[in-house]
Amino acid sequence: MPRYEFRCRACGGTFEVNRPMAEAGRPATCPQGHADTVKLLSTVAVTGRGGSAPSGGIPSGGGCCGGSCGC
Predict the structure, then answer these.
(1) Which of 40, 42, 50, 57 to pair with 69, CA 20 to 30 A apart?
(2) Predicted pLDDT at 33
(3) What is the pTM (predicted TM-score) of this model?
(4) Are 30 and 11 spatial neighbours (Cβ–Cβ below 8 Å)?
(5) How far is CA 6 from CA 44, 46, 53, in A?
(6) Cα(61)–Cα(18) distance, integer angstroms
(7) Structure letter (DSSP) for residue 33
């Protein structure tokens, strides 16, 4: 189930709510009881190769450019 982050405008606290995507836009109440909240935009970082790249197809390691130039 997706997790959504909210910020309370009354107390400034942030909190997370787990709910179905169909209810993503529904207002959330702050744990302190305040109703004036706003949903925050979250970023997702996906890292790693997961073994799907062909062997030797993607240079890795070394320097600032991934090692393809040998720096």
Answers:
(1) 50
(2) 96
(3) 0.58
(4) yes
(5) 16, 22, 37
(6) 38
(7) S
Can you say whether residue 48 is alpha, beta or left, with left for phi > 0 and alpha for psi between -120 and 50 degrees?
A: left
Tokens representing 54? Answer: 């062909």
Helices (H) and strands (E) in the chain, counts: 0, 3
- Tell me, rounded to whole angstroms, the distance of Cα 25 from its chain centroid: 17
| Residue written as token pair 């189930």 | 1
Distance CA 62, CA 5 (A): 37
Block residue for tokens 């982050």:
5
pLDDT of residue 56: 56
For the chain, how many residues are written? 71
